[in-house]
Design a protein that fits this description.
Largest sheet: 2 strands, parallel
Strand content: 15-25%
Number of strands: 2
Number of helices: 2
Strand order of the largest sheet: 1-2
Shape: flat
Length: 66
């Protein structure tokens, strides 16, 4: 419930199967509390998501959340 007023953007690699379930549960809990949340499962990535390493996507998400 404490996150309901904060935009939450989550990313997990599709081969990081132990984290996918936890992140889906977190997404569902935030949604149940009327929060603004997205979860993106990034194809061909593991726990460390190389596709996000340059930071561009992260900063784009932060700009959109303003």
């Amino acid at each position: 419930a404490g996150l309901a007023q904060i935009p939450v953007r989550m990313f997990v690699g599709d081969s990081d199967t132990s984290w996918i379930t936890s992140m889906e549960e977190t997404r569902d809990e935030v949604l149940a509390n009327n929060g603004d949340v997205t979860l993106e499962v990034v194809p061909n990535e593991g726990h460390i998501i190389g596709a996000l390493a340059d930071g561009v996507r992260i900063f784009d998400e932060l700009d959109r959340a303003r």
